[in-house]
Amino acid sequence: MDFAREILTVEVAAEDEDEASALVRERYGDRVEIEVVAPAAWVVEDVAWECWTPGPGADQLSIWLLDSTDDSDLRPLVAETEHEVVVTLLGPRWQGARSAMALKIEKRIQLAAPLGTRRVVDGATGHQRPQRPLH
Predict the structure, then answer these.
(1) Is the pLDDT of residue 98 over 60?
(2) Cβ(78)–Cβ(60) below 8 Å
(3) What is the mean pLDDT of the chain?
(4) Does residue 130 surpass a pLDDT of 90?
(5) Which of 8, 68, 92, 134 could bridge to 64 as Cys pair (CB 3.0-4.6 Å)?
(6) In this structure, is the dihedral angle defined by the CA atoms of residues 80, 115, 59 and 44, taken in order, positive or negative?
(7) How confident is the model over 75-95, as pLDDT tens digits?
(8) What are the pLDDT digits (tens) for 23-69?
(9) Are 54 and 115 in contact (CB under 8 A)?
(10) How far apart are CA 92 and CA 113, in angstroms?
(11) Going edge to edge, which strands form the sheet with 103-110?
């Protein structure tokens, strides 16, 4: 808010800044300006996760993370080799200012083969993650 000019600035996600500005001006007049913070409100990105736990079956594992995304919106991509399992989570990410509470999320992953002694790697970071529950 610019009190001296009596102008309110709002953040928006818009592909076309001129079109978004005209729409806001039409609806609210000249006392509102926009600041484009992203070309789209939501984008799909890799989501980093914290740790993992085995099972319940030999060909399953659970990955754990703290996030504000609904776990049903997270999509796992799994790449398996003889020595490692790489789990990449894809999830929607809000572009712009937003406050949200992080929730503890468990995402169960079905593997093509038993996990055995293979390393478990977070595809978003490329780092091996520890085997432990998220506290």
Answers:
(1) no
(2) no
(3) 84
(4) yes
(5) 134
(6) negative
(7) 999 999 999 999 999 987 766
(8) 888 888 888 887 776 666 667 788 999 999 999 999 999 999 988 77
(9) yes
(10) 29
(11) 51-54, 60-67, 103-110
Non-local CB neighbours of 133 within 8 Å, separated by 6+ positions: 51, 53, 64
Looking at residue 69, its pLDDT comes to 72
Task: Name which of 41, 122, 117, 129 is nearest 76 in CA terms.
Answer: 122
17 compared with 130, residue with greater pLDDT:
130
Q: Which H, E and C letters describe the chain, residue by residue?
A: CECCCCEEEEEEECCCHHHHHHHHHHHHHHHEEEEEEECCCEEEEEECCCEEEECCCCCEEEEEEEECCCHHHCEEEEEECCCEEEEEEEEEEECCCCCCCCEEEEEEEECCCCCCCCEEEECCCCEECCECCCC
What is the distance between the alpha carbons of residues 92 and 77, in angstroms, rounded to a whole number?
15
Task: Say if CB 87 and CB 49 are below 8 A apart.
Answer: yes
